Input
Amino acid sequence: MMLRQVTRTLVVSFVAISATGVGFAQGNGATVFEVKCQMCHGADGLGQTPVGKSMGLKSLTDDDTVKKSDADLIALTKTGKDKMAGFANKLSDEEIKDVVAYIRTLQKK
Ligand code: HEC
Output
């Protein structure tokens, strides 16, 4: 009985911790990008990664993307595009907003 309760408490706290996404606690757009986007889009956003090349990625710094509004980029990230699956269920609105803000910093480089 006792052991079962302990196990349950552990499971419940683990789920609670995962749900808040410890690594992104500060809503750090750079961290989100590094963990969730970089493997395709590249650290510089140019898309010159093996996966990026195989998917024919455009650079996130292209005029075409620069011209899109933050709302557009947030929507594209949420719902996905071509071979990119949407992140609506994987990231919070806050994280998506932060990661788009981070993409803006890549576009200024
Ligand atoms: C599995 C590879 C992959 C991952 C991971 C990935 N993307 Fe993409 N992304 C793509 C592909 C493929 C496209 C569509 C082709 C294109 O627009 O270059 C795309 C397009 C986009 C676009 C649209 C650009 C435009 O101007 O239309 C945005 C914005 C974007 N990704 C943001 C993100 C963000 C933010 C993340 C991380 C949270 C991310 N992507 C993770 C592959 C990926």
Remarks:
- The domain at 26-107 is CATH 1.10.760.10 (Cytochrome Bc1 Complex; Chain D, domain 2).
- The chain has one domain: 26-107.
